[in-house]
Structures are given as structure tokens and as C-alpha cells.
Amino acid sequence: MSMSPETGSFEHVAADMLVARGLTVGRRVRGVDLRLGPGVGLGVVGRSGSGKSTLARALVGLEPELAGSLQLVGRELVGAPRAAWAGLRARVQLVWQDPATALDPCLSIRRSIEEARKLAGRDRFTRDDPRLRALMERVALAPELLERVPGALSGGQRQRAAIARALAAEPALLIVDEITSALDRPVAWTIVDLLRTLRTGEVGLMMISHDLSFLPGTVETVLVLDEGLPVESGPVEAVLGRPQTATTRELVDAAPRL
Ligand SMILES: Nc1ncnc2c1ncn2[C@@H]1O[C@H](COP(=O)(O)OP(=O)(O)OP(=O)(O)O)[C@@H](O)[C@H]1O
């Protein structure tokens, strides 16, 4: 794994961290190719029920019925024993769609963060750990909110806390599944801005969003699913600006503004 002499970047290596080739999930997603890793941004769009969440769940090891290939840093996971999937927990974090269930409602934000670190095999944050303070700053949440349960936060704060929980695992890749859909538009945009800030670091992003206007400036490429099948993919401006399929055109026409 070496830095590219031409570009001076880790682009090639980074994009190869998680590689799917012809990835199939039961009968719900079929034949998906993608490359994800630090510094890579991919949007996944499609109608309701097109398989976006199923794909996201498959990429964090929550879907048992896999076929095709899914490699983590060159190691095949499809058909591998469960132990082989353990490395995913520290590297890939999924933030769920529903802000009410993204975090355990009974746990304080501090406890949720501790739990995420433990599951990822990271060391514990001490009570006044500067890394904990830095994490809260990174998601623009006041440190006092650490002691609250999710129900005592606003919807936007809850999604920030869910992102903080995911980042606590120090992942190389964040997968966010419709995390703005329960928020009103101004608040949703603040979350999109946060994702954009995270992208300037080394974190890779796979963003599932039914609102296509959030994608340009946040991710570079987009994959369109239709009934579980990939129907179009490429640079986000090209795919959304000149849709090649009726599915993509329909999604673009339904977008609030692009
Ligand atoms: N656990 C499951 N077992 C069987 N079928 C499922 C399961 N979860 C979802 N499905 C079905 O798989 C298909 C894909 O669902 P999925 O939730 O991945 O789509 P989606 O694109 O994320 O939709 P949405 O935008 O509504 O969240 C749908 O037909 C759905 O009804």
C-alpha cells in the first residue's frame, strides 16, 4: 500500500478498502459493484423498496444471505466464518434511518459512545478524555449533552449524537441511511454540512438519500438502484444532470432542487 507518485494521494488504496463485485443479497439486491474507503464518497439512490437499506445492512454484516464478492482490505467475506467479519465493526459504521432508534433510548449519549468503542475494540474514553470533547466538538454538540438520553435531545441533536457514536469507533467508512429524512429542511442541511466537513478528513461516506439535492458537494459518485438492480452509476453531476434511465429521471424530477 503506497502513495501514488502521480497524484500524491492514497486514492487508489483508500477506494479498495471495501470492494463489492456482483454482490447479491437474497433476492432483494442483485449484482452490485462498488468500491469504498477513506476519502471516497458514494451516494445511493432509488425508489422506496429498491434495496438501498438492504445494501447498507449487507455492507456492515447484517444480512446473512450474500452471494458474489465482498472484500475487506483484500479479504473475501462472502462465505467466510463470522470471525472474518469482526474487522468490519471497527472500520465501517452504519447510522440508521430512524433517529429514535439510531441510539439506545435508555442509554445516555456518553454510554452509547462507550458501547460503540467497546464493540469496535477501542480503548475506553476516560471521563474527561480530551478525545471525547474533540468528538463532541466535531459533531457540534455541547459536552453537557453527553449525560442526556436521546429522548431529551432535538431530532437534529439526536442525529449528531448518532454520528458521534459512529465516529467513536474511529471508522474509515461511514454509511448513513436516510439520516435527514425525519428532520425539517434547514436542520437536515446542517447535518449534510456536518457530513461534508467529515468528508474533508479521511472518513469515507456512503450516503443513502431520497433527497438528491443533498448529494452534489457531499459525494462524488452515485449509484442508482431499481428493484434491487444497479441501473446507473457515475459522477454525481453527470448522472443527475444527464440521467440515462427513466428511473434516474424520475428521481431527479422528484428532487426539491438541484
Ligand atoms: N428483512 C427483510 N426480509 C425480507 N424482505 C425484506 C426485508 N427487509 C426489506 N425487505 C424487502 O426488500 C426490499 C428492499 O427493501 P429496502 O428497505 O432495502 O429498500 P429501500 O430502498 O431502503 O427502501 P426505503 O427507501 O423505503 O427505505 C423491499 O421490497 C422490502 O419490502
Written description of the protein model:
Keywords: ATP-binding, Nucleotide-binding, Transport. Belongs to the ABC transporter superfamily. GO terms for molecular function: ATP binding. The relative contact order is 0.17. Strand 9 and strand 10 form a beta hairpin. The longest helix is centred in the last third of the chain and has 15 residues, at 185-199. Residues 1-13 have low confidence and may be disordered. It contains nine helices and ten strands. Helix 4 packs parallel to helix 6 (155-168) and helix 5 packs across helix 6. The protein has one domain: Rossmann fold, CATH 3.40.50.300. By secondary structure, the protein is an alpha/beta fold. It is globular and about 50 Å long. It has a six-stranded mixed beta sheet with strand order 6-7-8-3-9-10, sandwiched between helices. The chain has a four-stranded antiparallel beta sheet with strand order 2-1-4-5. The chain starts with 10 loop residues before the first helix and ends with a helix. The chain has helices spanning 11-15, 52-59, 86-91, 109-119, 130-138, 155-168, 185-199, 236-241, 246-254, and strands at residues 18-25, 29-36, 41-46, 66-72, 75-76, 92-95, 173-177, 204-208, 221-226, 229-235. The structure holds adenosine-5'-triphosphate (ATP). Adenosine-5'-triphosphate (ATP) binds next to helix 2.
